[in-house]
Amino acid sequence: MLDELFTISTLVGILHSCVRLATPYLFAALGETFGQRSGVLNLGVDGIMLMGAFFAFYAVFEGHNLWVGVLVAIAIGVLMGLLKAFVSVTMQSLQGISGIGLYLFGLGLSSLLFKTLIGSVEGVSGFRQLAIPLLSDIPGLGHILFNHNALVYLAYLMVPLSWFVINRTTLGLKIRAVGHNPEAADTLGVSVNGVRYATLMIGGALAAVAGASLSIGLQNVFQENMTNGLGFIAVALVYFGSWRTVGVLGGSLLFSLVNALQLWVQALDIPVPSEVAVMMPYIMTIVVLAFTARQIQKPAALARSYERGE
Amino acid sequence: MGTGQSRLEDQIVYGIAGPTGGHRAVNFRLNAPYVQMYGIVKRYPGVLACDHVDFDVRRGEVHALLGENGAGKSTLMRILYGLYQPDEGRILRDGAEVTIHSPTDAIRQGIGMIHQHFMLVDTLTVTENVALGLKSSREPLLDLGRVEVGIRELSGAYGLQIDPSAPVWTLSVGERQRVEIMKALYRGAAMLILDEPTAVLTPQEVEELFVTLGYMKENGYSLVLISHKLQEVLAISDRITVLREGRLVGTVPTEDMTRHELARMMVGRDVMLERTRDDEIDVGDVKLRLEDVRAQDVTGQPALRGVSLSVQSGEILGVAGISGNGQRELAEVVAGLRPISGGSVEMDGMPITDWTTARRTESGLAYIPEERMHDGIVRDFAVSENLVLQEHTSDKFSNGIFLAFDYIARYSRQMIQDFYIKTPDIRTMTRNLSGGNIQRLILARELSRRPKVLVAAQPTRGIDIGAIEYIYQQLLEQRDTGMATLLISEDLDELLALCDRIAVIYEGQIMDIVDRDETTAAELGLLMAGVHREKQ
Ligand SMILES: Nc1ncnc2c1ncn2[C@@H]1O[C@H](COP(=O)(O)OP(=O)(O)O)[C@@H](O)[C@H]1O
Ligand SMILES: [Mg+2]
What predicted TM-score, i.e. pTM, was given to this entire model? Predict the structure, then answer.
């Protein structure tokens, strides 16, 4: 039975799943990267994802266009980002705790709305496979890389785009400065809080799209707590990737590969207890965090709120 | 930039160097005040930091702001830079009243400030630090190429050597300061305030800084140099304003002043900082000897890599060096607070390597630690308790079980009198004393035991000139009675004034040990930078 895992077609299948399943990780972790680079730790990603997943699903369920679903998710994500910013930046509450609060809020509200507005588990037809002409005809590779839905491509597009914003724009320079030395940025007239509001709104939007990519892209259903803590793994991925977009990409692929393997191991009925397979991503998170705890790249002001001293 | 009209006039009339404008022929009215401050008052709870102070800066001048610690120098200038708001007073720029609410406002008025603690993002490059917060020419994209060209131009014109592409964390302290100056120049500052800029520099770096300031002055910049070092103020300034306890003592042309007159203005009485003994040193036996001592710093990195030195009775051996080269570990090794990983330490001919701190103290070692608030006293103890901290178990102060409170009280009053410790009472909490008085307290405790060996780490850092004078006197008096002193200091003037010999430490090794009478600050500076004598 184990041989089945090693046939060409199975390998192509696994890699295709890996590329596809990285989508929510990428959106959520890239969004979190913006916040953390500016010095704000947002542990509420999972809650924002759930809200994004629900609203995108609900819009589509009610007959709207898929892209309308994505836009609704973005709007909700921005609002949740604003809420996080108000609590952590303006009110200067402890960032870790307020993030957990945001998570619980998102988890509870999305479940409640689901129960009252939909009630039972329903399916929608989400984003369809969009084979890229010519490229998708390459044997093996074509299927792995170029036979996905639009949100998958968009997630990978976000990698260079995020890199560009962080490293090549004036906003990116402010983000990096504010995350490392808010006092210095302040004396140069950079609005520390303004920058942090911006990154949390960007992060919220991306987290919500990550949720939407589950409910109208990959799974095409909405269930209570359907993220299963994926948002927390996304936070860990930012550490894993040393706050760099390429690192986040690498980490996302690694985790989605484990996910893909787990799915295929189950699909092929290979005798590994399914609980072990399901646990893998979480065990990896812990291992990864244990080894990346001390990092030079870490924004020095991460999780510290800023107040101008007199 | 905000006040577009007048800024533009400045650029034309006064030829301010800017990234876009480049350098124009200088055409400024010398002696015209650029900034005037009138009747500035700033109150803090219990302190009047500035008490109706007037101050002005002209174009093309270096104006020194001199005063002891706590005189209000930084406060006055932070008000001008918009970091603090004054309670009273007016600020004029080019004769017109202005209000400055933030550093951004100050920069708009052409005022830049270099802080004691640098405001740099050390993960960013020099260019990125300069560009931060500025509008880019192709917003929202960065335009670092253009900024770099501007930096190179300014760096050539003012002798500010820096590599624009270097990340700031790789730079030395002197280089970081240049980045700070660059930031201000690039933003089109016409006036620069430097808050104690030389405190962190080697003598060579100080010279380079002064050359840069010289160029800037010639180009019509207004410069304010905050300092409490008489020598450098006399060396570089055109006028000097002296503050004392928040009040203006006076503003005088530098050429009319001597060191002594300035010191008197600063302290309010005559001050003696010169060496009091001119006769030949008559030194005795070796009291402290270190042989090939090796030790690690808190992070486990080697901090001392084979240090050998000896101090004789009746001698002060100085240890010069830029901070972080092993001085702290050296002091701690001798005091018995840090284990050594190799070599030996001897006191009075006996190996003390394995002795505890308490045993070393009983045998005649005294220690004035660098972190006086932290290691020298217990902040929440009364003055009298701190005075007997070291010997509280000795027969003098206790009968084995109980402390002899009456005697301790009498003893404390005597100490307070003998060592001129200014405190309301012997029961006052020690943390309420000023830095200078805390240092006198430590000195009283350590020196009244008549130690054979004294290790003093940065004993005058951050202390008033009046207290410094007293500490110098005490060190010299004790030396004359035969104490062996290891004096660790970053202040070369201090070492040259007090020491008989000076050892220079660099990266955990002694570069050289030189006679005080046969060396110069320049030579010591090179040794401190790790340049061997043969190569100088
Ligand atoms: N933020 C502050 N809060 C309270 N007191 C302050 C503050 N800043 C300065 N002071 C007090 O004001 C006085 C002047 O301080 P400062 O301007 O720093 O002196 P200098 O720079 O001349 O050493 C000191 O007594 C100091 O303790
Ligand atoms: Mg000061």
Answer: 0.73
